[in-house]
Design goal:
Belongs to the DNA polymerase type-A family. It is built from 36 helices and 24 strands. It is of the alpha/beta class. It binds a DNA duplex (11 and 14 nucleotides) through α23, α25, β17, α30 and α31.
Amino acid sequence: MTDSAKPTLLVVDGHSLAYRAFFALPVDNFSTKDGQHTNGIYGFLAMLINLIKAEQPTHLAVAFDTSRQSFRTREYSEYKANRSESPSEFKGQIPLLQDCLAAMSITVLQKEDIEADDILATLATQGAEAGFSVLVCSGDRDTIQLVDDDITLLYPNVQGVSQLKRYDTAAVIERYGVRPEQYPDIAALVGETSDNLPGVPKVGEKTAVKWLGQFGSLDALLENADKVTGVVGANLREHIEDVRRNRTLNRLLRDVELPVGPLDLAVQPMDAQAVRDIFARLEFKTLIPRVAELAGIEQQMAAVTSAAAVPMPVAVEPSPTDLRAWLDAAAGEVGVTITLEGGLPNRIGFATADAAAEASWTPEVSEAISGWLASASPKVFSDAKPQVKALRRAGIRLGGLAFDTSVAGWLLRPSFPDKTLADLVDRYLDEKLPEADPSQLVPETEGATPGQLSWFALRVTAALRAELSPSVATVLSDIELPTLLALADMELAGVSVSHEKLAAFSSDLGERADAFALEAYAAIGREVNLGSPKQLQEVLFDELHLPKTRKTKTGYSTDAAVLADLQETNPHPFLDLLLQHREATKLRQIIESLDSAIQNPASGGDGRVHTTYVQTGSQTGRLSSTDPNLQNIPVRTSESRRIRAAFQVGDGYDTLLTADYSQIEMRIMAHLSEDPGLVEAFISGEDLHRFVGARVFGVQPEEVTSAMRTKVKAMSYGLVYGLSAFGLSKQLRIEQAEAKQLMMEYFARFGAVRDYLRSSVERAKIDGYTETIFGRRRPFPDLASPNRVLRENAERAALNAPIQGSAADIMKIALFRIHDDFASHELRSRVLLQIHDELVVEIAPGEWDAAERIVRDRMGGAAELTVPLDVQIGRGDDWNDAGH
DNA sequence: ATTTAGACGTA
DNA sequence: CGTACGTCTAAATC
């Protein structure tokens, strides 16, 4: 509990935290082009910025040690004598860090013969006396003794500098079992290896706490040392002088003479130019906006309030020719909103910063403004794709798409995308979008008109741009917006699916499912709803008395993996029949939903299935597909591939082409980790799992058995998801020890992979987000969660996000370039489907060679990685034929 | 009528 | 105790 009326003094141990940051971050990723290492500086500053943002101190200082010598080394020459020389890469970072702090107008303190923690102790003591709420941030446990009602310690976690644990008096008692002022007594008894201060042998925290509880104080304990029984008692008596020495040395000085006091440490405005200069020199690109944000909060607030003063314009409704003139006269970007009726434009509205115009969609309006809509004149939309499609249906190809608020909102917060313009107005303008009250037949409140919606979209655009980092802005303009236009065309094109093929298969499956069901009932002597997990639990565990399986929220699991396990340990005919029934009904289900999605030619449809790609549907940058989902059409069993066979080349086209990236995620892993072995695997062109298997098992590639290959394959793929030994053992049905051994062997040969994965998560903890190769970001607040489950889930997701996300970026780039190339080469061939690492293309007569070349070149050349991007192409009359 | 949980399809 | 999705059914809830 902090007293908000009190000023807050934050004092930081610069040396110890920078040193921790140095070990937490990979030195390779943080070097300037002239070879200066900067990982310690970066990590420290990132942490400090976060800290200032979170704690909002009014007063601030950072203390440093001057050298390894201090009054303590003079008192006890062995003090810290075990510390190895700090690595050469670290040297030189401290003076540069101090330069950074100076540019940020943050006071730096150091004093000959005195350690940084003594400076912290002095300032904290003076600050508490002067009425400050004091925060001490240090990586040295001795500072625990400073904690009291006014002084709180922020101590870095073992995981790194990114997470600071808050120690107030209660937290110290909870963690160490003693009051803060008693902690040095514990430390004196236990000793401090890192300071080369041996304590009493066999005495750890538990014993020390017990003793202090018994005797009341360290002095009392030492006086009554003869009363302590056993080996530890003897040890205590033998090392009593060590304990006294330790206690002297770990007492922090609270009365160091300093040139400044707490009141002199008020936070000062930064020297913006100096900050820019030194950060540029250190090549800290991402830190600059974060520091600026810290420094410029007041300005930003002012900007927001003044912007709210502009009144919402009333839209004019000019004649078609006047509307065209209005658009031509508009300077800069124009907000555009098209409302739809039956897939076609209904009303269309436009806005500039202070005016709006709108019209109903008529042939005259269309005629008058189609040229402007197709032109490069910049336009801003909110959720452009359906509107782009409506225009396409009306024969107009939109040009000049400059911004989409929905996509931008998603890029900024992919985990909680603001779904509508109203959400964005709420969040980024802190205003309410006027909405018609849907509960009343005659709404009391007017909704915004298309022109006014456009005006809001334009204003939201300005607010979103202010928050987009340069890299994310580039992802929006260079990847997402071109992709949006390609997706619109893909959705319009749809894919031809044969009702006849589906229908035949479906009735097949129906009969089989019924037969399995009857047999299953016979096996247990009653009917049961096989689709009800609840009823199945009764059958399996109450009636058949099979052993309880994995727990779920509501009972015990009956999923396929569990049933397969049960079949092995407690074979029963019902289990297998249930699995077969499930498989058949699942397939039939998929077929039914697919069939009903075919636009029936009998009622004016085109006999094709038109999915909707949700561009803002994932947290990683992937697309998702709905109504129907065409990204989860079965492929694994030969049986299920009959469904793919129903996806066929459409009338007027020649053949289907499928193109997929082979092992794109592992290639990205090779690129990001620069693991020499993995890179060699891909450059050699040998089968990846065979190559890896040979290394891991120490045999020749041709000696890799299929069992070995299966294992390393599972391991390789698992890596991308943050797999544990436990998970690997379950997946491969091997002992955990063997899984552990496999991981050890794997990392022994491909160590840079592990280094990369570790450091990438560590970096995410410091930055608060992950980044793909192309700069797409995903925030991970839960990386700092004290809840272990939440945190570890976030760690696995953060490990996966840059890899899955980079693959998504690459595919999007390939996709829109192929789409655009087809158009510019005036091919009729068209991309129909995207299934994450695969494209399905419909090839027009005579265009195979040209189209195949474009697909191959664009997919292979979508990114320059240190390993090649391998593309597999297939050809056939249906998707199954064309696949491989 | 809508929501939740379990199951399962894909990359 | 492996990431990212969407959709189906049954059952629970409104």
